[in-house]
């Protein structure tokens, strides 16, 4: 009884917390915006006592006997976007509160609305404008916004952001996860100016299983009467009018003659959406993604996903990625390996990287950070995952390169978990039925009688594509010679081998037989063995080695070999290719030959 009351209370608290946060408007990069990137003043608040001290008010002494025990002036300054852990040596392992402040000038117009947009803050954020709370947000990898029209001064203003990256058992991700917990304002910040009635959201994409019929859905904010909205794609000779209802919602569908986006020719069109109040522009592509039996079909043609697992991190500076230059650096390595597919792990990257991957013809898997030990017994945590899926799909639903939504990675089977993930899958299909749904499992079991690995997981039955992480030769022994290994994983559907690999120090040969040498020769042989095994998996339609580039992780405590780095990368933290890189390059060249129907 007490437990039920506590869980109900947590659910209410979550609802209150998220009642402040607002889903970010679609395509912030196509808006009338002002950047707040650059140097922000900051205060370290290890004990998280700044709220009771009133740091958000940014007060100054007003009389001789008054003093304050905080000050933003003449102290620490941090780059935004950017994590604080990589900017200050003493903050490398820091996990607690940091307060940020930014002064700005704004000439306020009475017929405009103003929003502050954050690409992401890890993990909790409280945002104050001129000393008053705008709102709160939870989740370290998702955009959010707050309207600040009524609290803005015409002239001088200041924003204070309270960030906290402390881990929690009820958070997503939870207490332990295999990547660095970079904290702070990690992605871009903008002030966005809109008309009183503005285009909050739009979806423009091909209808499910169609290669010519476009579906368009529009949502205006602030509308109280019907409005006519023009949707134009000049290169495709498309000009359609959507009429909204009194609440600003409108839909239309129509046929079009299109050049479809693919990995060889990633065709994108200029899109123009015009309302009576504003015009929004961006680039958008169209493609069909579906399954047929064990095949994954891109525009009706079978495709093999030659993948890369990539963290949102720049290894050379040991920090979170956040700029177009960072995106280009990472995606260049994806293409050099011969990959046509990227699994962003284990959270969505910053938005410009998704857009750049689309321009480069790379298919994309996006997932929420429901990694391993998530507390699905807690309704608050389950609701948080739902909110993250909504934010993820809201941001990237118009990116044709995104072909897979993933609801979890390596979660343990239980009634609560099964119910939560089943709900997530249903929610994804409700929000977007045009893409494929997957999740990564690590619970395949060896069946002695048939000498076969099988997956027995009720959630898998609900997925379009089943994906498995399994580290033969590293965490798990080979039970047969690689060429004789048998895996029967969802034999009626496409299967992606979503993680495999071994750690190796670049430039350290070791030998081919002993994992404890941490050598390139062992890693190279392990990759060759996996390639042999892949040939035996009839429904294998994609692989993504773990991982493209070495990355930082508190899990990895071998002082000589790891030093808080996961060394499973095909590329070292310094940018050098390990021997295993060449194994995957050769395999990808072979596997991207056309697949016969």
Can you describe what's shown?
By secondary structure, this protein is α+β, with helices and mostly antiparallel strands. The chain folds into three domains: 2-195, Galactose-binding domain-like (Jelly Rolls, Sandwich); 198-287, Sandwich (Immunoglobulin-like); 291-591, Glycosidases (TIM Barrel, Alpha-Beta Barrel), CATH 3.20.20.80. It is built from eight helices and 36 strands. The strands form nine sheets. Strands 22-25-26-27-28-31-33-34 form an eight-stranded parallel beta barrel. The protein has a six-stranded antiparallel β-sheet with strand order 4-3-5-10-7-8. The chain has a five-stranded antiparallel β-sheet with strand order 1-9-6-11-2. Strand 17 and strand 18 (279-284) form a beta hairpin. The longest helix has 19 residues, at 2-20. The N and C termini lie far apart (58 Å). Mean pLDDT is 95; it is low at 1-19.
